[in-house]
Amino acid sequence: MIVLAYLRQQKISKKQAMITGRREMKKSHKCEVIFENGGILATRRYSYADIKRMTNSFKEKLGQGGYGCVYKGKLPDGHLVAVKILSKLKGDGEDFINEVNSMSRTSHINIVTLLGFCFHKTKRALVYEYMPNGSLEKLIYEENYFKLGGRHLGWDTLYQISLGIAQGLEYLHQGCNSRILHFDIKPHNILLDENYCPKISDFGLAKICHREESKISLLDTRGTAGFIAPEVFCRNIGGISQKSDVYSFGMTVLEMVGGRKNIMTGAERTSEIYFPHWIHKRLELQEEFGLQNVTTEGDTEKARKMVIVSLWCIQTNPSIRPTMSEVVDMLRGGVDCLQVPPKPYLTSPSRSSPTIPMSMVV
């Protein structure tokens, strides 16, 4: 009986494997059709053998996430690259198609360059320019740079990074032939080159839309808890638009300013759990921010400018938030010209409770 049960289970497993294999092949075929019809093949396409060669059989891992792993590689001409290997194809492969399609349309100093891709049956990879300083989150959180023996980046560098991210988003919203909404701006998706020039990466959730579209429709909530604009998961707040990226930018800059996660449930005082409210109160009462490494008047001015601009960006009502063009102007202008924004009341779902639709932080 045990042998019969085992053989039956083996037969079922083989059948399931065959069904799964057929599904993957269908997805692969659909992606091939989209690539060919969409004209994306203008971006260089590599074979899986090419990918293995350039990464020396995946010898040096740079990072890992829910999408898969990133490896360091080298092209035949000696140029270093980062190769992202996607572990599984979501839905019909729309994330992969999105990333290739979106990034093949871009060319900007603050957008990471897609050098090519691999799509062979179930094997998928993206080849990017290599960023020696990695992603922003490794360098801005106190817990990270103390652990790694690093130091505070300095306020001039932080300011230049925030301006660079803003310019990259302004380009996506206004400078491309088609408007691109990113929908996943966060420190993990900002890469830094050898001079700490920021480059926006990871366009898997991006949406390409016509310039004349002021608002767009989404069938699902997309983004990362803690950075998602309120209107993306609660549609009665306002329409989804480029202002949703503005919100995520504001939350990213606030984490750069605070050197910590915006929502920190382990904080000693209740008032310190949600950083945007804590810093807004300091701003309103004209108190010292008490931030790390502020040593000169220039540091104070840059920190204050970043705080005020980011608090405008995370306003609950999307219509009150500035556009990214206005954000760039605000960051370049004088701090004395900036008004203190109203206190933002609604936040995106907390990192610890991503299933909660909305949290009110008092």
Automatic annotation (TrEMBL):
<keyword id="KW-0067">ATP-binding</keyword>
<keyword id="KW-0808">Transferase</keyword>
<keyword id="KW-0418">Kinase</keyword>
<dbReference type="GO" id="GO:0004674">
    <property type="term" value="F:protein serine/threonine kinase activity"/>
</dbReference>
<dbReference type="GO" id="GO:0005524">
    <property type="term" value="F:ATP binding"/>
</dbReference>
<dbReference type="InterPro" id="IPR000719">
    <property type="entry name" value="Prot_kinase_dom"/>
</dbReference>
<keyword id="KW-0472">Membrane</keyword>
<dbReference type="InterPro" id="IPR045874">
    <property type="entry name" value="LRK10/LRL21-25-like"/>
</dbReference>
<feature type="domain" description="Protein kinase">
    <location>
        <begin position="56"/>
        <end position="346"/>
    </location>
</feature>
<dbReference type="InterPro" id="IPR011009">
    <property type="entry name" value="Kinase-like_dom_sf"/>
</dbReference>
<dbReference type="Pfam" id="PF00069">
    <property type="entry name" value="Pkinase"/>
</dbReference>
<dbReference type="InterPro" id="IPR017441">
    <property type="entry name" value="Protein_kinase_ATP_BS"/>
</dbReference>
<keyword id="KW-0325">Glycoprotein</keyword>
<keyword id="KW-0812">Transmembrane</keyword>
<keyword id="KW-0723">Serine/threonine-protein kinase</keyword>
<dbReference type="InterPro" id="IPR008271">
    <property type="entry name" value="Ser/Thr_kinase_AS"/>
</dbReference>
<dbReference type="GO" id="GO:0016020">
    <property type="term" value="C:membrane"/>
</dbReference>
<feature type="binding site">
    <location>
        <position position="84"/>
    </location>
    <ligand>
        <name>ATP</name>
    </ligand>
</feature>
<protein>
    <recommendedName>
        <fullName>Protein kinase domain-containing protein</fullName>
    </recommendedName>
</protein>
<keyword id="KW-0547">Nucleotide-binding</keyword>
<keyword id="KW-1133">Transmembrane helix</keyword>
<keyword id="KW-0732">Signal</keyword>
<comment type="similarity">
    <text>Belongs to the protein kinase superfamily.</text>
</comment>
